[in-house]
Write a structure and sequence with these properties.
- Helix 2 packs across helix 8, helix 5 runs parallel beside helix 6 and helix 6 packs across helix 7.
- The chain is of the alpha/beta class.
- The protein has eleven helices and 13 strands.
- The strands form three sheets. Strands 1, 2, 3, 4, 5, 6, 11, 12 and 13 form a nine-stranded mixed beta sheet that branches. Strands 7-9 form a two-stranded parallel ribbon.
- The structure holds iron/sulfur cluster.
Length: 348
């Protein structure tokens, strides 16, 4: 490795950092560098510095709870719930179980959002009821979001009126090929959510070793150009027993390079679009991290807190390990994130 930086990459990165717009082919050019190249390292270092400045080195924790799970007609070839391969039983979380989860994850005041996850086939009335339960159970400063199957406009309005302020919805890479869902259906739902006034976050996922730079950039920019409030990138987890488990996985380092390039590529944008990280939020200056509870699409354990174990305590520890010195609280204030804080919150 010579250590000499590619002049075109330097030029693109310099313009991106100066909040100048860079083209999609220039983003793809940066993504084409190997993850262990100096150009990738430079993308990560620049994004890290800028993102930490923006958030004042403050970590932010969200929580996902699987409330309606089981065999799913989406049949996504990467998902634990695909009806073709899953062992999961149909499940709708009882209200009192959701109340217990909400109380447990919010008890130290440092969770800012709770996302209720469902499979593709679900009764919207069940989700409306569960949104109301979560909304009633926690402080108004904590945002309740939905991560559910496709929705008609009227359903979105009803969910917003029930208390859902945000939603996570994705036009997946390989939608219609690795899933049984028409890509147009996914896009329609995203538009329905946005039109109903729900703040909608999207993500470029699930990224596998076969995903090209061009398709990653195209998918990411679709979210930006279609009114989503934030975007992210996420790799495919090779869940045992799923069709794509043998398809391999990209590394954390490669994902970090991708998220850095995509974050830098939208610095020019003065609208509401922002970048967040779905899973490895604690790495490299991306300060939003999600803990996961109950059943989840990326874990075969019945309760993912007992499987992958990405609990709120885990999230606090990881934020601390990655050098965040403050943690955002539900009321907008911050707490010092140090060993004492980890002790106080039963995280170590
Ligand atoms: S990713 Fe979602 S839509 Fe696809 S099988 Fe899993 S739960 Fe269903």
């Amino acid at each position: 490795m010579s250590g000499q930086l590619d002049p075109k990459a330097i030029d693109i990165l310099t313009r991106a950092c100066a909040r100048k717009r860079i083209r999609e082919d220039e983003c793809a050019y940066l993504l084409d560098f190997p993850e262990d190249s100096p150009e990738a390292d430079m993308s990560v270092a620049l994004a890290d510095r800028i993102m930490r400045e923006r958030c004042d080195n403050t970590g932010d924790i969200g929580v996902q709870i699987g409330v309606i799970t089981g065999p799913c007609v989406g049949r996504c070839r990467f998902c634990n719930f695909s009806a073709d391969t899953t062992d999961a039983e149909p499940y709708v979380m009882p209200d009192d179980v959701l109340r217990d989860y909400v109380r447990e994850v919010t008890r130290f005041g440092d969770v800012t959002s709770i996302s209720l996850l469902t499979i593709q086939n679900f009764e919207v009335d069940d989700l409306i009821r569960l949104v109301k339960v979560a909304r009633r159970e926690c402080d108004k400063g904590i945002g309740i979001s939905i991560n559910c199957g496709d929705l008609e406009y009227e359903d979105c309005v009803a969910l917003r009126e029930a208390g859902a302020i945000g939603a996570y919805h994705v036009l997946r890479l390989g939608e219609g090929r690795d899933t049984s869902i028409d890509p147009e259906r996914r896009k329609r739902t995203i538009r329905n959510l946005i039109s109903s006034g729900i703040i909608t976050t999207t993500c470029t996922e699930p990224i596998g070793p076969e995903s090209t730079s061009e398709e990653i950039v195209k998918n990411y920019m679709w979210g930006l150009n279609n009114g989503c409030a934030s975007g992210a990138v996420m790799y495919r987890v090779p869940v045992p027993g799923t069709c794509l488990a043998e398809g391999g996985s990209i590394t954390d380092r490669r994902l970090l390079q991708m998220s850095s390039v995509m974050a830098l590529s939208t610095l020019w944008y003065s609208g509401p679009f922002s970048f967040f990280r779905w899973d490895l939020g604690y790495q490299g200056g991306f300060n939003k991290v999600f803990a996961e509870y109950a059943a989840g699409p990326r874990d075969t354990a019945a309760l993912t807190e007992n499987g992958r174990g990405r609990t709120v305590g885990w999230a606090r520890r990881e934020l601390f390990k990655k050098g965040y010195d403050k943690i955002l609280r539900y009321d907008g204030s911050t707490a010092v994130l140090d060993l004492e804080y980890l002790r106080k919150t039963d995280s170590i």
